[in-house]
Amino acid sequence: MLSTPKTVYLKLIQAACNESLPEQILSSGWQLKASSSWIERREFYDTFEWQAFEKEVVIVKKKRTLFLADLNTGDEKASLPFHGSPCSFFSDTLPSCSLKTELSSLSDIRAFIKLCSIDAIITSYRILDDNEKTIAILTSESLYLAGRENPETFAHLFSLSPFKGYEDDMELIKKSLLCNDDNVCSIVDFRELFKLIMNAAGRNTQDYSSKIQLELDANAPVHDSARRLLQFTFSVMRANEEGIKKNIDSEFLHDYRVAIRRTRSILKQLKGVFDAEESTYYLNLFRDLGKRTNELRDRDVYLLRQATYFHYLPPFLQPSLKLFFNEMAVSRKRLHKQFCRYLASSQYQAFLEEWDAFATEQSIPHPELSPNASLSTRDMALNTINKAWKKVIRHGRQVSHETTDRELHALRIDCKKLRYLLEFFSSIFPQKSVAPVIRQLKELQENLGDFVDFSVQLHFLHERLTAITPGKEENLLAASMGGLMATLFQKQEKARRTFHKTFSTFDDKKTSQLFHDLLTSIIQ
Amino acid sequence: MKTIALYSIKGGVGKTAAAVNLSYLSSLLSPPTLICDLDPQGASSYYFRITASKKYNSDKFLKGNKKIYQHIKATDFENLDLLPSDFSYRNLDIELSEEKKPQKRLKKNMAELSEDYRFVFIDCPPNLTLLSESVFAASDVVMVPLIPTTLSIRTYIQLKDFFEANKLDSSKIRPFFTMVEKKKKLHCDIIDEYRNAPGFLSQTIPYNSEVEKMGIYRAPLNAVLPNSLASKAYRNLWDELREHLERSK
């Protein structure tokens, strides 16, 4: 295969911007011919979690086209005609094409949000050799943030795109651009360029992740570590509020709820670290806050499952299920409005302030009120993880042959507690030692999660079915719900049947050794 | 990928002009295209303002693959690349005769370009040698520009005889008339005579002083003066050729 010559990006040093005409920085030996000038608007998109950036790609809209480009080289990987300039869009709204496949593989539930818009004033020059043959295109770009009242250039760039077969000349041109008397240029790669644009727009790449990325000190009092964890979960909550209000995608509320559950888990599982009375007080507040979001999250989940549910039914039963999803969408709208009103309320503001003060409180409470606050983070981690793991094993072994709903529901919660503890303290263990333990646990959690999910869905659908009023549409809906419930029931039973096998894989020598190794790895 | 050779035993018949303009047209309509200048005089390369790098020679051309890739150059026109000629090509025949299967050598080298180009045009030197034979084997179509004169027609008959004598597929030969002057009775008579002859393309290229000026513009006529008579004729010729290629798929 023929290789395409790489474009080189050069950034002009700010002070030299006024004399940025390429004629002045390109030494003699080549001719420059200005071919055209134009203004180009570029709009950059990514998910809230920077999933494109993480996979080393950039999504940019320009010239009425959406492009997916390589983050390191800027090379275009896929494109699609794209009109308008939405604040956000989902990959599944795009027509079938390779770009859609690529974006869906980055995320099919998160929206791609407009990160920023810039205007580039571009002048393109041809570099000619002594035969007046074009050997490269040099484009000079001045970048501005779009839509600002007094736009100021935040960067001057040159991109040098050599023509095939002229790579040797290009080295000389590059040298000439870099080594002129004023030293005005430096080579930047496309990734740096992207970061430069993001920073100019006030965005920091990868500034959000719901994963706990704290580096805890194993020797620090657990009280300090717990407060840091609480501050982290609080920051996740706050970071997601805007997305919930703007109704961008369902993951904002999901992450917000996970942050609430983690907060509660910290308060509840790290016993004796905080004043018990205060802990209970906040636990109740967070429980109530979580409850406010339950129904809204349920609607999100059903709406996300729409395609799957249709898939469970024969085609002639599918249309009648639309009624159910319409209901879900309507009630979701109402619940969303209701929750947003709460987020804007003074009650919520007061709660935030109060909690912020608690989470950032530095001084260790009185030992009588919180006897474990001064324990080392290491000791607390060892203790709680060990206990939680033993509990999962004990309760799992107690699950009867019938594997009742109640037993599986309870075990699921035990597993979740253990998972949270492992995640909270993962930074004090040797690198990569927690991941294999979590992998073992994950399989069991998936089995239990499936079981409980099916059980909750069945219950929900059953309740809706009992409220059905006879009528043509409703009768058809009842039929499709019946079909759906039969499938969900089969799936639930399948999850129930596989429980003992899944649990025995978890409750084996290998997992036990992994836990043992993990816990002994930090004992000094 | 389709390989089209522009070939004539006789020089000065508008071979290079056809190769340059047809390759340009194909790069606009069915990109990407490569024009391969095999004539040591390097007229196609000159028209595109391209000179081969000092490291390039006939030896590298025969080696093929990476040695060729490194020396392909982009023209000033999008989707149109050129493999320039080098003066060392005058020895191609001798070097080719030392190869194991000289007739198949070019075909093999061209096949390696099939992932990168939809069309490859070969501008051949005006002679009938081992290299020509290798070109005939490598090409899907051998376009033969003919000035409507008796001598030109004679070279065409010689070519056909050569194909038959060497058991080559003579259905590849697609002659067409160039430098046609309607004022000349002989031109008109010959064109009339061969209008329905098998293999002949019906589009003719008129004699046009603008074609000669390509040496001054150093660009395809169709890019510089797309509305000139000759440009229109090349466009029609390309349509006719493309139709033929699609039919023969």
Word description of this protein:
The complex is a heterodimer of chains A (524) and B (249). Chain A is globular, with a radius of gyration of 29 Å. Chain A is built from 16 helices and ten strands. Chain A is an alpha+beta fold. Chain A folds into three domains: 8-200, Hypothetical Protein Pfu-838710-001 (Beta Barrel); 210-294 and 338-375, CHAD domain; 377-524, Alpha solenoid (CHAD domain), CATH 1.40.20.10. Chain A has helices spanning 22-25, 51-54, 98-106, 167-178, 190-200, 222-246, 250-269, 276-304, 306-312, 318-343, 346-360, 377-398, 405-425, 434-466, 472-506, 509-520, and strands at residues 8-12, 31-46, 57-62, 65-70, 76-81, 88-89, 112-128, 134-145, 153-162, 185-188. Chain B has one domain: 3-Layer(aba) Sandwich (Rossmann fold), CATH 3.40.50. Chain B contains 13 helices and seven strands. Chain B has helices at 15-29, 43-47, 58-63, 65-69, 92-97, 102-111, 130-138, 150-165, 185-194, 209-212, 214-217, 221-224, 229-247; strands spanning 2-6, 33-37, 73-74, 80-83, 119-123, 141-146, 173-177. Chain B has a seven-stranded mixed beta sheet with strand order 3-4-2-5-1-6-7, with helices on both faces. In chain B, strand 3 and strand 4 form a beta hairpin. The longest helix of chain B has 19 residues, at 229-247. Classes of the chains: A alpha+beta (524), B alpha/beta (249).
Properties at a glance:
heterodimer; A: 524 residues; alpha+beta; Hypothetical Protein Pfu-838710-001; CHAD domain; ten-stranded antiparallel sheet; 16 helices; 10 strands; 54% helix; 16% strand; globular; B: 249 residues; alpha/beta; Rossmann fold; seven-stranded mixed sheet; 13 helices
Order of helices and strands of chain A: EHEHEEEEHEEEHEHHHHHHHHHHHH
Share in β-strands of chain B: 5-15%
Output the structural class of chain A.
alpha+beta
Low-confidence segments of chain A, given as residue ranges, are: none
The CATH topology of the largest domain in chain A = Hypothetical Protein Pfu-838710-001
